[in-house]
């Protein structure tokens, strides 16, 4: 089950995800996460504790990034595990979302 915590910093908010980003996380992301962060100008999404992402999870990530960018927020996805980043790169997610999103 996906959980998240928020850590408000001086100039940004950090979203710390924990658990698998998959179909089970849809409700959490759409109903809780996006409303909690959509008014911030700088959002860092920390993937350090996300061991697995499936296709629905990638769709969720794309939704979060596009929603935030539509409100002129600067989004960074950071601390992505190598095995998860390989899947992102295989599916060209950095190209789709922008190379500047992945740190």
Features:
single chain; 4 helices; 103 residues; four-stranded mixed beta sheet; Transcription Regulator spoIIAA
Sequence-ordered SSE layout with sheet pairings:
Blueprint: E1 3-8, E2 13-18, H1 26-37, E3 42-49, H2 55-70, E4 74-78, H3 82-90, H4 93-97
Parallel strand pairs: 2-3, 3-4
Antiparallel strand pairs: 1-2
Helix pairs in contact: 1-2
Describe this structure as you would to a colleague:
There is one protein chain. This protein has 103 residues and is of the alpha/beta class. 41% of the residues lie in helices and 24% in strands. A 4-stranded mixed sheet has the order 1-2-3-4, covered by helices on one side. It is globular, with a radius of gyration of 12 Å.
Strand order of the largest sheet: 1-2-3-4
Order of helices and strands: EEHEHEHH
Structural class: alpha/beta
**Reported CATH architecture:** 2-Layer Sandwich
Classified by CATH, the class is Alpha Beta
What is the CATH superfamily? Answer: STAS domain
Distance between the termini: 25 Å
Find the count of extended strands (DSSP E, 2+ residues): 4
Helix content: 40-55%
Radius of gyration over C-alpha positions, nearest whole angstrom: 12 Å
Uncertain spans: none
Beta strand %: 15-25%
Overall geometry: globular
User: Number of helix segments?
Assistant: 4
Largest sheet: 4 strands, mixed
The CATH topology turns out to be Transcription Regulator spoIIAA
What is the residue-mean pLDDT, rounded to a whole number? Answer: 94
* Number of structural domains: 1
């Amino acid at each position: 089950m996906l959980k998240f915590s928020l850590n408000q910093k001086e100039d940004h908010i950090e979203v710390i995800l924990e658990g698998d980003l998959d179909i089970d996380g849809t409700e959490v992301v759409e109903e809780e996460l996006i409303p909690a962060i959509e008014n911030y100008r700088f959002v860092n999404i920390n993937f350090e504790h996300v061991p697995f992402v499936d296709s629905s999870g990638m769709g969720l990530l794309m939704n979060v990034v596009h929603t935030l960018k539509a409100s002129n927020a600067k989004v960074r996805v950071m601390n992505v595990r190598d095995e998860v980043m390989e899947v992102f790169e295989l599916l060209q997610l950095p190209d789709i979302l922008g190379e500047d999103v992945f740190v």
